[in-house]
Every structure is written in structure tokens, then in C-alpha cells.
Amino acid sequence: MQQASAADLTARVALLERRLERERSARRTAEEIGERATSELFEAVQNLQRAQAEIQGRADQARTVTELAREVRRELDLDGLLQRAARGLGEALGADSCTVRLTAGDRATALARWARPGSGCDGSAGTPLGDPAAELAGGSPAGRWASTRAATPVLVGEQLVGWLELESSQPRSWTERDVAIAEGLARELGAAVSQARVYADQQATVERLRELDLAKTEFVSTVSHELRTPLTSITGYLEMLLEEALGELTPHQVKALTVIDRNAQRLQLLIGDLLTLSGVDAGAFRLDLAPVHLGTVVADACAAVRPLLERRVLDIAVEVPDDLGVVHGDGTQLERVVSNLLTNAVKFTPDGGRIRVAAADDEHGVSLSVADTGCGIPLDEQDRLFTRFFRSTISQEQEIQGSGLGLAITKAIVDGHGGGVDVESAPAAGTTVTVRLPRHPPAAGVA
Amino acid sequence: MKGIIFNLVEETVSTEYGDDTWDSLLEAADVEGSYTSLGNYDDAEIHRLVDAGSEALDVPAKDLTEWLGRDALLRLAARYPHFFAPHASTRPFLLTLNDVIHPEVRKVHPDSQPPDFDFSGADPRVLVMTYRSARRLCALAEGMVRGAAEFYGEQVAVTHDVCMLHGADRCELTCTFEPTGEADDAAGVGR
């Protein structure tokens, strides 16, 4: 039994030893795997940290470029924005000087230079690089990055328009960040330069148009004055002829002279309108203010348009209360307003129609309206009614005479009084023009 | 094959038949047997161990493998209860194999190659699992299905007509579940 037990024991020990050896081996394997995994984990974490740093670096570069670009784009003037770019980039990269040079094509060379105070680069324009591409070898394909000088091209589209040049008094190594920021700003600068040039072109165009407009206004004014003088002489002699002060007239002669007189008066009105609008454009339109009774103004205007009503069948009603409030205004110009509106109403209302002139006090002053049952104004033309020389399609189709200045002048006069003009119109139903006048016009624009 | 499978097999054999038997199986299979759950071992070793066990215990290799699978599943359930707890029955648990459990296994063991199963079966009581693996351990998978059913207290009938061990390019395990309180009766070595 003892021998058997000893044999059992030996077998047991052998088994345990084998198990122990297996356990040791398994442990070694596990440790190796653990060490390998730890090393891989360490490497993975390091890679992640590097990636994170790179992402942060790129974000920082992008932010710097965005900030520089925003600063540059604040300026619409080309020289100003180049100055901002030079200063911004020089400071951001810690350079001693930064120069922006535009050299493109038919455009004049523009130059902006910034130098760090006390760097020894300040004061002068330095020694500009003639052709950075030729003078500075190396660097990235796009730019040139040597130890004390660096340059990156400014492109508009594919076209080289200039260089961003950096200078350092001591040799230095430009980092990837420096290159990325300089190239980023160069790209933004290309776009900003285009924008500034477009803006400058636009400004020049606007200025040219302004000059042309002024020349046109002066021309119209001069011609109108020149026309008025002989016309005054013509109408004077016409008057004498018609009064037979220069001899007796035959009925044929009277008829001919009457036609001449009517057309001379039309010319006079047209020249008067042109001169008024020239005055408005030149800021020289003045109102001669005095207390005005609109009832009188309306009556005078009605009298003035009476010749138009000969051989017309129109029902004209005037509804102006006797106690209508007085307004401070220019009586002559207001009569012009009313007679313009009445003339339009007569011209655009067929025989058998009605015209109603009404005035009433309202909370702000006085309102005066001229309503007709005429042909109305097409809807799509109503927003151009106050445009000079605008003539509605109806007036052209029906060959109704007119210069297209009446409503423009009406509006100019009413505006001068601080009032407003409203038009309500429906084709074939008629038109109502309402003028609202304050009791006292504002001080501006008043003589 | 991941070391954890060998560890589970060792536990099962040692618990059921003693350390001596395991020791002799290692010798008979001519394998070193120093398995760590972190390690990766030659697939052939599991087959050699099963063959040795089949001979030593006089049990068909397939039955032995299935028994090892069932027991391994119950040990896994004890070790990783959080994979089992969210489910009330076997079918939904099995459906998480591809999407939850095996991805988790790959996280901890990047070099592991757990099998992917294709699942089908419109009937909520039936699940058809298609198994494709060069290891051809379909019996281990079938045993694990039975172990899972046992864990959830269900009865499962598994038909395994299409089998890689019989020349097919895949195995199809058609599992039909019946809830029961006496699921234990269906478990055990062999079928």
C-alpha cells in the first residue's frame, strides 16, 4: 500500500509540476501579450495625441488666416488693404518686415510695407525683391522660403498678381505653420484685391455717371434759358400782331397767328417745366411762401385750363369749402400743381365723363384731390408715373399730347412743401390723384 | 482559436472528469496546453483535443463537441452576465451575436475571428442560423444554442440537416423554441 501511495504521490507531484509548468508558460504568454498590447496602446495614444495636435495646429492656422483676412477685408481701398495685410502677416509670423507688392499686367504697381519698430528694417522701403521666384530658390513649389527672406505668390484665379514678402534680420527657419498662414492669407488677398479693384471701378463709374448727369442738367438748363429769350420776343410780337397794333389782320391771318400763339405757349410751358426740374436737380428750386387760400388756387387753375375745355363735353364739379384752412405755400407753384392735375384729367377723360376737384381740411393740413372717370392707368405702369418723360401706353396709343413732365413737376413742388402725392387708378374706371399739404412746410428747401 | 475557448474546455473537462483526465488528454493530443485567454492558438489543437477526448471517454466527437459548447455557454453566462441579462429568451439573445457580442469580442481580442451567422425565420418561435467557418465547429455552435436555451429556461429542437461536416458549404441550424420550466431535461451530453 505504501509503495502504491508513494507511486500515487509521485504521479500526483508530476501532474502538479506539469500543471505548474503550463500555468507558468501561460502566464509568460499572457505577459508578453500584455506588454505588446500596452506598447501598441502607448503608440496608439501617441498617434492620437499627434493627430490631435495637428488638428489643433491646423485649426489655429485657419483661425489666424480667417482673422487676418477679416481684418484685410474691412478695407475696400486697395492701398489700405495691402497695408493691413502687410502688418497683419508680419506680426502674426513674427517677421521683421513684410511687404506686399502687386505687379500684375496693365495695373499700376502697388506696394505696402510694414516693419517691426526697432527691427532695423523700418524707415526705408528696404531692398525689394525684383523677382522673388528667381531670387529665392527652394521652399514649397508655390512659395520661396529662404533663411532671412521668404515670399509667397498672390494669385487671382490662375494669374500671378503679386508677392507677399517676409524678411527677418536674423536667419530663421520658417515653420509649416508660417508657410500655411502666409499662403492662406495670400489666397484671401487675391480675392480681396479683386474685390477692391471691382469696388474702385464701380466708384469710378458712379463718379463718371454723376459728372455726366451734372453735365446733362447744365446742358438742359442752358438750352432752356437760351430758348426762353427768343421765345419771349416771339410771344411779345405775336401779342402785338393779334392786338392789331401793327395793322389790321385778315381772318386767315388771325387764324394762323392764333395757332402760332397756342404752340408758342406750349413751348413756353415746356421750357418752364424743364427749368423747374433743372432747378430741382441743382438744389436751386425755391418756394416763395405766403398764406395761400386753396379755393383761389383751384379757381385760378380752372380758369387756366378753360381753353382746353372748348369743344369738350365734360362735367366738372369743384367742391372746395369756403372755410377751408389756409396753408403756407407758394401760390404760383400750387396753381401749377392743380392745373397739371386738371390738364391730365381733361386729356384722359373722354367726352361725357366727369371730373371732380375737391379739397378738405385733414388732421395734418389740407388734402386736395382731382378725380376723373377717364381711361385710367395700366397697373404695371403706375409705379413709373412720377418718372420724367414717362408717357403711359394709353397716351401713346391715343396720341394724347404731353411731355411726360407734369406729374414729375407736381411731385417736386408737393415734396418741396413737405407734402405727398397718391395716385389711385383702375383702367377704364378713372384716376384719382390726391395731394396732401401740411399747413406749414418744413424749413428745408424753402426760400 | 482564442485561448478562452480552451480555458472553458479545460474547466469543463477538469470539473467533470478531474485534472488527471485533462492532463492525459493534453498528452494524448500532443499539445502544450498552456492556454491563456489573451492568446491565440492553432485551430487544429481543439480538434486534436476533441479527438483525444472522444477516444478516451468513448463518446462520438460531435456529441463531445456539442456538450463542450453547451457547458461553455453556461460558463460564459456566469462570467459575462451583462450580455444575457437584457434578454428574456434565447431567440433575441442569439440575434445579438453579430451586432453586439462578437463586436465586443473583437474589441477585447482584435486578432480573434468569431464566426458570423446569417439569421432567418419569420416565425417568432423559429430561428434558422447559417454557420460558415473554416473551423467547422458547427457542433460547438449547436451546443451553445442548447446551452443558451437552458440558460433561458426554454426547450429547443435543433435540426441540422445541411452540414459542412457532410460536404455542404455551410451549416443550417433550424432552432425551434418552446418555453418550458423543465428545460433541464433536454440538456446533457449527446442528443
From TrEMBL, chain A:
Localization annotation: Cell membrane
Keywords linked to the UniProt accession: Coiled coil, Kinase, Phosphoprotein, Transferase, Two-component regulatory system
CDD domains linked: HATPase, HisKA
Entry coiled-coil feature ranges: 6-33
Molecular function in Gene Ontology: kinase activity
Domain of life: Bacteria
Domain annotation Histidine kinase: ranges: 222-441
Keyword check for Phosphoprotein: yes
Catalyzed chemical reaction(s): ATP + protein L-histidine = ADP + protein N-phospho-L-histidine
Gene3D superfamilies: 1.10.287.130, 3.30.450.40, Histidine kinase-like ATPase, C-terminal domain (3.30.565.10)
PROSITE patterns: HIS_KIN
SMART domains: GAF, HATPase_c, HisKA
This protein's record includes keyword Protein biosynthesis: no
InterPro entries: GAF, GAF-like_dom_sf, HATPase_C_sf, HATPase_dom, His_kinase_dom, HisK_dim/P_dom, HisK_dim/P_sf, Sensor_HK_Regulatory
The enzyme's E.C. designation: 2.7.13.3
Pfam families linked: GAF, HATPase_c, HisKA
Protein name: histidine kinase
Taxon lineage: Bacteria, Bacillati, Actinomycetota, Actinomycetes, Propionibacteriales
From TrEMBL, chain B:
Domain Heme NO-binding: 2-160
A Pfam entry, by short name: HNOB
InterPro entries per UniProt: H-NOX_domain_sf, Heme_NO-bd, NO_sig/Golgi_transp_ligand-bd
SUPFAM superfamilies: Ligand-binding domain in the NO signalling and Golgi transport (SSF111126)
Alphabetized Gene3D superfamilies for the sequence: H-NOX domain
Entry superkingdom: Bacteria
Name of the protein: Heme NO-binding domain-containing protein
